[in-house]
Write a structure and sequence with these properties.
Elements: E1 8-10, E2 16-22, E3 31-35, E4 41-44, E5 51-53, H1 55-64
Length: 65
């Protein structure tokens, strides 16, 4: 799993969080994530069922709605 700040982490439950910070140059976890449902920021090691949505893909999804 690779990400950059501004991408979105999506859990299998549908919970979404903005990736505010990455800790490794290669974009691998852990990530500092600001969860949409609580606005809480946490250091997250995503599980195997989580996935990253790029900032560009998220913008396109919102624009299409």
């Amino acid at each position: 799993m690779k990400a950059k700040a501004g991408d979105w982490l999506v859990e299998p439950t549908g919970r979404r969080g903005l990736i505010a910070e990455i800790r490794h140059e290669d974009g691998g976890p852990p990530y500092v994530v600001r969860w949409l449902d609580t606005e809480h920021e946490a250091l997250v090691f995503p599980g195997p069922d989580a996935h990253v949505v790029t900032a560009e893909d998220e913008a396109a999804r919102l624009h299409a709605s």
